[in-house]
Amino acid sequence: MTMGAALFLLVAVATVAAALGVVLHPNPVKSAIFLVVTLFLLAIVFVLLEAHMIAALQVIVYAGAIMVLFLFVIMLLNLQDDDPERGRHRYVLRGLAWLGGVVLAVELALLLRGATMGGGEVPADYGSAEAVARSLYTDFLLPFELTSILLLVAVVGAVLLAQKQRRSSLP
To answer: Tens of pLDDT along 43-102?
Structure first.
């Protein structure tokens, strides 16, 4: 095993562990912190793939700006941990966890068996600013704009929920 493959495997395991922390931690703020760690680890994966521009964008845009937005919404909603419905959904959550475990096991088996997706040569301008911009503003313009609208709607919804919650708690 080469040094690059060993480093990639180490970063991949750490990324999966951090992603599991996002999903499994009951505190939403700590889940968001795990998400920041996951995004930084993904930036390291992009560096290992020699896509330095995408790695920088990963840190600046996602780990920076988007996570500030997420934390703003989480703090605005003031989420509490005492959910009376939580016990009722325990069996559904366990079933989903088992399903996720089976999917993870199948993916690991395929990975260990040496299954690859695609392969082939990497383009010469892979990960450059020009290639990212060309792809983003030509092939993926509609999903890019829809994502920005979705984030805007999520923030407006969180503000409205917070205002409704404050109004109902006033005497």
So the answer is: 999 888 888 888 888 888 887 888 877 777 777 776 555 555 556 667 777 777 788 788
Q: Name all domains of the chain by residue range, CATH numbers in brackets.
A: 3-80+125-169 (1.20.120.1200)
6-25 pLDDT, tens per residue?
A: 888 899 999 999 999 999 98
Using an 8 Å Cβ cutoff, are 34 and 50 in contact?
no
Nearest-5° Cα angle at 21, 7 to 4: 5
DSSP character for 65? I
Q: How far apart are CA 156 and CA 93, in angstroms?
A: 29
- The CA radius of gyration of the chain, in Å to the nearest whole number, is 20
- What span, in angstroms and rounded, lies between the C-alpha atoms of 111 and 90? 31
Burial of residue 103, with CB atoms counted within 10 A of its CB: 0-12 exposed, 13-18 middle, 19 or more buried = exposed
What's residue 89's pLDDT? Answer: 67
Token pair for 25 = 């931690």
